[in-house]
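Batch manifest, entry 17 of 40.
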Amino acid sequence: MMRIAFAPGAWRAWQKLPTNIQTRLEEKLTQYARDPLRYATKLTDSKIGQYRFRIGNYRIVLDLREDELMILAVAHRKDIYG
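Output type: structure tokens
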């Protein structure tokens, strides 16, 4: 299982989310950390990150490192790429 780490901006965005959304995203992230490439979609524009997870209406943009998922952005789908 890979370790989950947050970039400072992603952590601030995470903290602003409602508690019920945080809980849902945390459950899925824990599941996805076991086999991230199975659930991740590679982004065509890598300037915001290498991969993304889609969890309901939320998107999590991340980079995969040796033994960790570095979360770069967390936002609603309408706000993440803009």
